[in-house]
Amino acid sequence: MSLEKKKSEQVQVPKLKSSKQRHLRRYWQLYAMMVLPIAYFIVFKYVPMFGNVLAFRRYRPGMGPYGVSWVGFKYFNQFMKDPSFWRAFRNTFTISFMNLIINFPIPIVFAILLNEVRAVRFKKVVQTVSYMPRFISTVVVFAILGELLSPSSGLLNQFLHNVFGMEPIYFMNEPQYFRWLYVLTDSWQFTGWTAIIYLAAITGISADLFEAAQIDGANRIKQIIHVTIPSILPTIMVMLILNVGRMLSLGFEKVLLMYTPSNSSLSDIIDTLVYRTGLYNQNYSYATAIGLFSGIIGVVLVSSSNTLSKKFTGDGIY
Amino acid sequence: MKKYRTKGNIIFDAIIYIIMIFVLLVCLVPFIYMLAVSLSDPKAIVNNKVSLIPIGINFEAYKQIFRYPNFFRAYGNTIFYTGVGTLISLIMTTLFAYPLSKPNLWGQKIAMKIVVFSMFFSGGLIPNYLLISNLGLTGTRFAMLLPFAISQFNLIILINFFKSLPSEIEEAALIDGLSYFGVLRKIIVPLSKAALATVGLYTAVFFWNDWFNGLIYLDTKQYPVMLFLRNIVNGTTMVGDAAGSADKATIAISIKSAVIITSTLPIIILYPFLQKYFVKGLTVGSVKG
C-alpha cells in the first residue's frame, strides 16, 4: 500500500514537470508573440509609472530622470499651499460637474428620440452625421470655433448683429463664456458617439414589451416613459457611474488650446497647470507631484465608481 | 399602419423631425461655413457677406497653401505618422491580443491585469516626457510612433473579437500542421477584417489628429499638419505673406479655413467607408474588459 503510494508520487513529480514543459513546447509561439508587446508595456507604461517617484525626489537637470535625493512630501506640501493649485482644482471640478450635468443626459435624449424616427434612411443619415464630429481633431474644433465666433467676421456675431442689432462679442477671450464653450463643444463632438451605446441598449429591448404597452393603450410618449427608459436604466446607471469616475480627466488638449491669459482665472485646470509648471518652467518634481495627486484621485474615483456600479447593476468595466 | 395616423402621433413625429434636422444642421453647418469661407473672395469676407454660400468663388486660399512649403511638409508628415503609426499599432496589438484571447494560456490572467491596471493609472505628463527624452526620442519621428504602439482600449476590442471566433477552425488548422504564427496570419487575421478595420480606423484617426505630442517632442520640420494649423490659429505662424499687409488679416481667415478643410478632408472621405464597422467595435469594447 505504502509502496504503491510512493510509486505514484514518484511518477507524479516528473509528470507535473513534463506538463509544464509540454505547455511551453506547445505554446511557445504564443509566448514569442507577446515579447514585443510586453516590452512595450514595460517601457512605455510601467517605467513612467515608476517615474512618479520624482514627485518625492529633487530633480537636477542632466542627472537622470529619477532625481538626485529624497525630499519626502515637500512638493506635496508646496502645492497644497499654492493658491494657483487650488484655483486649478476648483476649475477642474466646476467644468467637470457642468459637463456631467449637461452632457450626460443629452445623448440619452438624443438616442431615445432618434429611435422614434420611423423613416429608416433619414434615421441612418442623422446617425452617421451625428457622430462625425467625434473624428475631428481638437485643433480643428478649436479653429472652427474661433472662426464661427470671431468678432469681425464670425457667423454668430453676424447673426446677432443682423437679427438683434448686437455689438460683436469677443467670445473666445471673455472668461464668462469659457466654461459654456468648453461644455457645448463637447456636446457637439460627442453626443452622437455616446448615443451609440444607448441606441444599442434600446435595440435590445424586446418588441413584446412595446406591443403589450400599446394594447394597454399607451401612446408613444407613455411607451418611452414606461418601457424604453426603465429598460435602458441599467445602461444609464453604468454610464453615469463611469462618467463620475472619469470626472477629472477633462479634455486637456481643448483647454490648452482655449487657454488665454485673459480667461486663465477660469480656464486653468490641473492638467494645464502641470503642463505649464512642468514643461514650461521646467519645475519637473513639483509638476510630477501635482500630476500624481490628480492621478490618484482619478484612480480612487474610477475604482470606487466601478465598485458601486457592480454593486447596483452587476456590471462594471473590469 | 392606421394607428400611427393619430393627431398626437403626427405632432410627436413633427417635433422629432425638427429636433433631428436641428442636429443635422448643428453638425454640418460649421463645415459648410468653413468651406464657404475658404472659397470666397476675401473682400466678401471682410464685408460680412459670407454665410453658408461662397461669394465670388476663388481658389486663391488653396493655391496659397499649396505654394506654402511648410504646409506640404506638415501634410506629408501627418500622412507618414498615420500610415506607419497605424501599421505598427495594428501589428503590435494583434500580436498581443491573439495570445491574450486564450484563457488557458499560463500567465494570461496576469497579463490582462497588467494591461487593465495601466488603463487607470499612468505615469502622467512629466514622467512620460522625461522617459521620451531619456530614450533619445525627442526630435525624432519615433516620438510620435512608439509611445502609442498599443492602445489598451483597442487591445480589449480585439481580444473580445478573437474570443468570439469559432475555435474549431483553429484546432483543425493546428492538427493540419500549421503553427500558431501560421494560424494567426492565415486564419485569424483574414477572419477579423471587420475588427481590424475598426481598430485601424480609431488608430488612424488618433495619429491624424495628434498635435500635442508633436508640440512637446518634435522639431519644426517634423510637425504634423494639426500642429501647423494650431500655429496658424495661434498666430505663431504667419500666413498670407504673398499679399500686401493690409489684406493679410482677411486672407489669413480664408487660408485658415482652407487648412481646416484640407486637413480634415481625408477623415471625412474615409469615414463613410469604415462607418459600418465601428459601431460594432464601440459596443463590443464597451461591454467588458
From TrEMBL, chain A:
Organism: Lachnoclostridium phytofermentans (strain ATCC 700394 / DSM 18823 / ISDg)
Family: Belongs to the binding-protein-dependent transport system permease family.
PROSITE patterns: ABC_TM1 (PS50928)
Name of protein: Binding-protein-dependent transport systems inner membrane component
Record-annotated ABC transmembrane type-1 domain positions: 89-305
Keywords: Cell membrane, Membrane, Transmembrane, Transmembrane helix, Transport
Record's subcellular location: Cell membrane
Residues annotated as transmembrane: 27-47, 93-114, 135-156, 190-210, 231-252, 284-302
InterPro entries assigned to the protein according to its UniProt record, in alphabetical order: MetI-like, MetI-like_sf, UgpAE/MalFG_permease
One of the record's GO cellular component terms: plasma membrane
One of the GO biological process terms: transmembrane transport
Automatic annotation (TrEMBL), chain B:
Gene Ontology CC annotation, any one: plasma membrane
PROSITE patterns, alphabetized: ABC_TM1 (PS50928)
Domain of life: Bacteria
Keywords per UniProt: Cell membrane, Membrane, Transmembrane, Transmembrane helix, Transport
PANTHER family in UniProt: ABC TRANSPORTER PERMEASE PROTEIN MG189-RELATED-RELATED, POLYGALACTURONAN_RHAMNOGALACTURONAN TRANSPORT SYSTEM PERMEASE PROTEIN YTCP
Protein name, entry field: Binding-protein-dependent transport systems inner membrane component
Gene Ontology biological-process entries: transmembrane transport
Transmembrane regions listed in the UniProt entry: 12-33, 79-98, 110-130, 142-162, 183-208, 251-274
Domain ABC transmembrane type-1: 75-271
Membrane-related topology note: Multi-pass membrane protein
Compartments it resides in: Cell membrane
